[in-house]
Write a structure and sequence with these properties.
Elements: H1 2-11, H2 26-29, H3 34-52, H4 58-72, H5 76-90, H6 94-102, H7 108-127, H8 130-152, H9 163-170, H10 173-191, H11 193-217, H12 222-245
Helix pairs in contact: 1-3, 3-4, 3-8, 3-10, 4-7, 5-6, 5-7, 5-12, 7-12, 8-10, 8-11, 8-12, 9-12, 10-11, 11-12
Amino acid sequence: MRLYFVALQFLTIIPLPFRLRWEENDLGRSMAFFPLAGLTIGGLLAGVDFLLTPHLPRPVADLLLVAILAGVTGALHHDGLADVCDGLAARGPRERFLAVMKDSRIGAVGVVGLVLGLLLKYQALLAMPPEFKRQALFFFPAVARFAQVQMTVGARRAREDGLGAACIAGAGVTQFVVAGAVTLAAAYLLFEFKGIACCAVLYVFTWGLKVWSHRRLGGVTGDVIGCASELNEVVCLLIIVGMHRM
């Protein structure tokens, strides 16, 4: 379970009541437990929703859920989404794209991408049928964390340093298989075969992002992985809403 806590400590700001010992390549190896950490985040959201629903209007409660998700993750992946949007706006060669993403400042396009991502997530939650909302709250953080594993395993490093390189160094087929099994099991338990179908669509979507990143940047970076995670959260929620409106 030590690697689960490594994953939880990396993906969230939740304090642990004990000191955690890290070893070389632990971050990559802990990716096997990323979807489980995502389910933990989802459980927190579902619990908060249970407490808020009787006391607040639905729009206010759903906006608080989006804010809590950003807060509990330290907005780590939101930063990746904004940086990739800024890199796309730079319209230069690979080196220019990587330099823009590494810049700690955020540009206008990054702000627009970040705001649109948050608004889409909020509107998707607001449109979610009440009978499926808690299942969706458990599911979408988990499947987005599996997307991080998918983006990492077998990828090339666009940079030799950074979080992306650290994840790639320790993640392999074992992490991918374990993370995939946890994600599919959660998908079936929460949404049955519709959940499996949702995972399949997101897998193809993430594969496309990974191919694009390799062609454009020569590999993946931590920002690209974070961006893929944010996009998977949005797309997952939109798929669930769409499936239950058909």
